[in-house]
Design brief:
Shape: flat
Strand content: under 5%
Order of helices and strands: HEHHE
Number of helices: 3
Length: 83
């Protein structure tokens, strides 16, 4: 029974770990090297977290979708002036 519980726990950890992916970056219309990316990433990561504005300022574009905000709900046509 312990083996089954441990296997399920390990599977759950692996599944959750796959969800915690970092963003991918690229430069559109410009050639770049892995070395250039690593240098820019390191310089924009000072302090332990990545400054995305710094990456964008150096010409990098995020390929992975970030946090997407939902637009406000449309007004209900049956109730004028209310949402």
């Amino acid at each position: 029974m312990r083996l089954v519980t441990r296997a399920l726990g390990l599977g759950l950890l692996l599944a959750l770990g796959g969800c915690a992916q970092e963003k991918e970056w690229m430069k559109v219309g410009q050639p770049y090297t892995t070395e250039e990316f690593r240098r820019d990433y390191a310089e924009c990561s000072r302090g332990g977290s990545l400054d995305e504005a710094c990456m964008r300022g150096r010409g990098w574009v995020s390929v992975s979708p970030g946090k997407v905000e939902k637009p406000p709900p449309a007004p209900d046509p049956r109730r004028p002036g209310r949402y």
